[in-house]
Design a protein that fits this description.
Radius of gyration: 16 Å
Distance between the termini: 46 Å
Strand content: under 5%
Structural class: mainly alpha
Number of domains: 1
Helix content: 55-70%
Shape: elongated
Largest sheet: none
Length: 75
Amino acid sequence: MPTAVKMSDDLVIKAKIKSKIFKRSIAGQIEYWASIGQIIEENPDLPLPFIQEILIAKEQIKTGLGTPYVFGESE
């Protein structure tokens, strides 16, 4: 359910710029930032690039472009 939230003009301007670069809506860009922030808070020892690579890999698996890694199985 959508909820109206007040945000600073500066945040909205930055989101507008990034949203055009990454082909997201402004709301989608802010939601992306919020989800990344949540992941970082829950995993403070992981660097941002590592988290981004995990998210990319998960999407690749969903689209059939990769194979999931199964811990404990060796080749």
